[in-house]
Amino acid sequence: MDKKYFQLNLPLFTERLKIMTSNTLDLLSEETTRILCLQADTLTKALKINNFLNSGTSQKEKTIGIKEIEEWVGHLENERQKLDKLEMVLAVIGTMKAGKSTTINAIVGMEILPNRETAMTTLPTLIRNKHGQIQPVLTINKIQPLLALSKNVAAKLKQLDSDEKDKIDLQGIEDGKTLIAQLVQQGGYTFETEYEGQEAIFEFLRHLNDIMRLAKDEIINILPPYSEYENLDDLPVIEVEFCHLKDNQGMAQGSLAILDTPGPNEFGQSEALRRVFKTQLEKASAVLLVTDFTQMRTEADQNVREQLAAIDSYLSKDRLYVIVNKYDMWNTNCMKIDEVKNYVAGNLMEGKVEATQVFPVSSYLAYLANRAKGYLVQNDKLPSCEQEPWVVDFAIKAFGEGWDEEDINDIAKVKKRIEKLWGKSFFDEPVEKVIKEAHTNAAKISLKSAISKIAEYNREFSNTLNLRSNAMTKNISEIQQMMHNFQSDIDRCEEVKKDVLSTTTKFLSVLEQDMSGVMATQQTNIRKIIDKFFDEGKMMETALQEQMVIKALETLKADNLRNFLRDFAMGVGFSQLIENQNTKYRHKQEEKIRQTFDPSSPPNCF
């Protein structure tokens, strides 16, 4: 192809390439979103299967449980939200007063987040780059939980007397008592859904954090609604154009957002806030850790290590960057830049990050330089010190303690001092290697983050399914073995049954023979007893008859002598007389027996 032709048609080729790239990203985004939704739907269905998942993670089997699956579904929803915007989310974390808010302000180019002596961030806030948005706008899509919180705090404050209110820890906030009075008087705080401009945003953030802190005070003891703000779309969002990305619009296919997270100093106050921190890190595309150069090789190092231990499982080397802030405090006795990089990468971070991803900087100098440069671009001059107090700080850092009004009114001189101040901040390196690169590759990073989540969850879920399958196979084998053993027991029982039946039959045969002999013997004995009884009965009957004859004779002698004689005289024979007397006696005895014999009584044994 002719070089001249190519040069003439370069804009056309560039435009076509952008269209092709855009179309490819759209297709990839659409397909990735489809897979995300499919995986989320599969996981949701798994939650509904009875006894399929444990109530918690099994450390022994390293399987996932219901809680993890529920978190995954939430994370996949956040990835889907990022894919909708092709947005790369950079989470900024750091210990209190390490300069986290100042670093974010330096990246944005204006004081988008207020600074205080106390910890400021109690609710994660998303700062999104929006090209052409000069005036920052804060939007809250989910306002109701904050309104309810302020009303609950106000109701609790109304119940307290003056002494109890004085005991509330306001952490040195000068307008704390004014806020308490306002809450009591109005019955809450009227949060709006949108705030425009720095002052309005500052007021919202200050009051939001103050109310959060009032709620957590042990006297009030109300849990802030952290769980309501786990999704990125529910967080407060500040949209503004980042000064360093103004000329980078044509290079990016997606958008960049910075996530301001609560620091670990807040963790001791609320376990719920710790979960917010953990959840937001899991959902971020990359993490920027801010540390304090002046606190290195002190106890602060240990705090950083503990912080990293809490997020270690969510990070990889290509997703972690480190800002070593306040490097402008350097002197000849301090470590040089390369020494700081190697120390942080090797010692402090214990190899979790490369030295090329460590940036010793002065966020404060970078912020002042950006703030002055941005104001000059819009107004061709700096504001008065009375109008903007930051101008004094800039003048001191740019011109020294002996600065005067002429210094800051000399625009050419101010521009040179801005560049010099920017150079002394060493902030150009993280802007180029982190912020601009993240913005340029936001779409790719967003896709990579989503695909990484899909692959990670698929791997762990598959592992759980395999473990469950192996366990079921093992259980089936065990049941089959138990059935085999049970059948063996049945077979052995049958053999024992046969042995018992055979032995019992033999025993019964012998017993029957013995019983037959015993019965024959008993029958013989019974016959003898009966024969003896009847023999004795005959003897008794004979004796009885003899007694009857004797009694008859005696009667004859005593009572019936005249009758006897009369009968005899009438010709009745002697034998007949005796028989008549015997019959009468027998009838008397039978009557006597009938009167004394009871048929229902048991027989007498003998």
List keywords for this structure.
alpha/beta; 606 residues; single chain; nine-stranded mixed sheet
Question: Can you lay out the helices and strands and say which pair or pack?
Answer:
Blueprint: H1 3-8, H2 10-47, H3 66-85, E1 87-94, H4 100-108, E2 125-129, E3 137-139, H5 144-158, H6 162-166, H7 176-186, E4 194-196, H8 198-216, E5 237-240, E6 255-260, H9 271-283, E7 286-292, H10 299-311, E8 320-325, H11 337-348, E9 358-360, H12 363-379, H13 390-399, H14 405-409, H15 411-425, H16 428-440, H17 442-558, H18 561-569, H19 574-596
Parallel strand pairs: 1-6, 1-7, 2-5, 7-8, 8-9
Antiparallel strand pairs: 2-6, 3-4, 3-5
Describe the structure.
The chain is α/β, with parallel strands linked by helices. It has helices at residues 3-8, 10-47, 66-85, 100-108, 144-158, 162-166, 176-186, 198-216, 271-283, 299-311, 337-348, 363-379, 390-399, 405-409, 411-425, 428-440, 442-558, 561-569, 574-596; strands at 87-94, 125-129, 137-139, 194-196, 237-240, 255-260, 286-292, 320-325, 358-360. Among the domains are: 365-425, no CATH class; 478-596. The protein has a nine-stranded mixed sheet, with helices on both faces.
Summarize the structure.
With 606 residues, the protein is α/β, with parallel strands linked by helices.
First-to-last CA distance: 143 Å
Rg on CA atoms, Å: 54 Å
How many strands in all? 9
Largest sheet: 9 strands, mixed
Overall helicity: 55-70%
Secondary structure class reads alpha/beta
Q: Average pLDDT value? A: 76
